[in-house]
Amino acid sequence: MSDWKDIRSWSRDEMMTRVARFKKLQGSDGGLPDSPLPECRRRLFNVLGFQPPETGNSPVGANASAKPAIAVAEGFNLGYCKAKPGKGPLMHNHDTNETFIAMTGKWRCEWNEGDALEYVDLDPYDVISFPTGVARRFMNVTYDQPNREHLLMFIIGGNQPQAEFTPAAMQRCEAYAQGQAPRRTSPARAQPPRSRARGAKGGPARSALRRTQAHRAGR
């Protein structure tokens, strides 16, 4: 391997293999355990990296991991999620760091489960970075635009990162597959805001339930 200090000259054709045009990205809405669930409907775009892991789930699912827009393996991966309000993955974890950046709309990022649940809302260009070992999920909460999809960017470390869903999330997937469970509401959506859960600008995070009630009252 040549030393990185040795300046290389690349042709335009070579560099264009590392350019991804957003309008040409090919997304996928399948390939993960929670993909069939109505509350989890989303489209994942493998922009850079995301080679299929040797075992387990790819964070973008088997379908998207097979067709990165920029197929490199240089220690990190980058992709987008597009979803309508109320949609997002179930609680899961990765074997490396995961960072979220809201690009459009408002996104709720939750971590922990049960009584330990916490969340924060991100406005465009706000960032949250999750360490390995913390269960997390995200959801579009732009409820004043009910029919519009919004965009979240995610950056995940490693060349072949793995995703693993929590036991509670897998139980939900199995129950849905067997037709035994209706759609469940996230605890953060069902409860009023708590003083310890604050929005990206420091104010109390407004619950999705109150958003929905306010939206209905305005009709």
Secondary structure elements and their pairing?
Blueprint: H1 12-16, E1 27-28, E2 43-48, H2 61-65, E3 76-83, E4 92-94, E5 98-102, E6 107-111, E7 118-122, E8 127-130, E9 136-140, E10 150-157, E11 163-165, H3 167-177, H4 187-190, H5 208-217
Antiparallel strand pairs: 1-2, 2-3, 3-10, 4-11, 5-8, 5-10, 6-7, 6-9
Describe the structure.
It is a single chain. The protein has 219 residues and is α+β, with helices and mostly antiparallel strands. Helices cover 16% and strands 25% of the residues. It is built from five helices and eleven strands; from the N terminus they run αββαβββββββββααα. The protein has a six-stranded antiparallel sheet with strand order 1-2-3-10-5-8. The chain has a three-stranded antiparallel sheet with strand order 7-6-9, with no helix packed on it. A hairpin with a 6-residue loop joins β6 (107-111) and β7 (118-122). The longest helix has 11 residues, at 167-177. It is globular, with a radius of gyration of 19 Å. The model is unreliable at 190-219 (pLDDT under 50).
Tags for this model:
single chain; 219 residues; alpha+beta; six-stranded antiparallel sheet; three-stranded antiparallel sheet; 5 helices; 16% helix; disordered C terminus
